[in-house]
Amino acid sequence: MNRPIRVLIAKPGLDGHDRGAKLIARSLRDAGMEVIYTGLRQTPEQIVAAAIQEDVDVVGMSILSGAHNHLLPKVVDLLKAQGADDVLIIGGGVIPDDDIPALKSAGVDEVFTPGTATTTTIDYINTHIKRK
Amino acid sequence: MMELTELIEKMVTGDKRSCARLITMVENDEEDAKNIIKAIHSRTGHAHVIGITGPPGAGKSTLTDKLVKQLIKDGKKVGIVAIDPTSPYSGGSILGDRIRMQDLALEKNVFIRSLGTRGYLGGLSRSTKDVVKVLDAYGADYIFIETVGVGQSEVDIIKTADSIVMVMVPGLGDDIQSIKAGIMEIGDIFVVNKSDLFGASRTATEINMMLDLNQNMDRRPPVVMVTANKNEGINELVEEIKKHTEYLIETGKLRERKHHNAKIEVVEMIETELRKIVIKHADSENKLDQKVDEILEKKKDVYEVRDEFLSVLNK
């Protein structure tokens, strides 16, 4: 089916810095994706509600506050509880390398840390999208 | 096909995920769209459709957020379709209207969906009408369509909405703007948003003067002063929307509008199909490019080429 990939970009938790989130949103837009940007300070519940209503293929979360170990798995669980386990989930932001394996085993598909080229993220989404 | 029936059954009981999936299908796939619309057709026609339109930055999303909060207090179920532009280069888009409606995401009786225009120029997306039908069948009492920030001529909302709320703000131009043809003509209710800003009363006066010039109206649209981010004037606006709805029903104009809009919809669908037939023919074996070259080489003119391609319809 020839349709644009839909991506939700969210900022979970309590940090107020969204330059990285906006940069990635813009890069995905330029790669032909439809990006739903939900803005700052989102709870996992709000993110999942938006992801369900917008029927996105990908949920991308940018997080700098250090609360990633709590917030990202919470979003994974809430999505699963809604039966939306065909959504690709990616994290980005200031996330220590040591935390990444645990996040992945909790169901986060990939984590991109600062310095990742936007093309890397775009390629990853294009090749790993779960829904046909 | 079974899957579709199941999705529709779940949607009409209020399942948001099924509703979302059906919207995706009508937005993307024509064959599915046809079957879905056919299956839900008898369930549509209940919702009152409100178009929220006006220039970029007028505060349409914030206004919609406040209006919807007021309506759900009364126990109403609301659908919101928020449209943002698609890039003409990449085909991608950033749909950012949800930012101003964050608290509504978790409301049980609210469903918000963002759409990219995907190349359609009238302020809506091509599939907006079908998305509205799905939300109608989902059980929404009110459906808000927030257009892309429109300029002077993106008036397609009149083909889809029952009531059109035209949102203006102070300081957008001199009073000649208000007497031009285009968006200023189509409002059923005018809102001066950000009415705490300098120049708001002058903007209201200009709109009022424009409205008073039109002697042929059997209903004179009201002008409501609103400051949406402070929640001021929202009650008055909800009242005006209700009054307009009653007016439409009592005068038979609702039926008239719906007839007119359905007629336009059918004609536009015929145009789309005809266009596909002709373009498919024209595009085969690069005929279109060849003929265009012949135009540039002055061997043929555009009318000749048009008629050659249209002749496929006579077969």
Average pLDDT of chain A:
94
Given the C-alpha coordinates, what overall shape of chain A results? Answer: globular
Oligomer: heterodimer
Major beta sheet summary of chain B: 7 strands, parallel
C-alpha termini separation of chain A: 7 Å
Q: Based on CA inertia axes, which overall geometry of chain B fits?
A: globular
Low-confidence segments of chain B, given as residue ranges, are none
Strand order of the largest sheet of chain B: 4-2-5-1-6-7-8
Q: Give the count of helical stretches of chain B.
A: 10
Instruction: Write down the CATH topology of the largest domain in chain B.
Output: Rossmann fold
CATH superfamily of the largest domain in chain B: P-loop containing nucleotide triphosphate hydrolases
CATH architecture of the largest domain in chain B: 3-Layer(aba) Sandwich
What is the end-to-end distance of chain B? 34 Å
Order of helices and strands of chain B: HHHEHEEEHEEEHEHHHH
Taking the sheet with the most strands of chain A, its summary is: 5 strands, parallel
Give the structural class of chain B. Answer: alpha/beta
How many DSSP-defined strands of chain B? Answer: 8
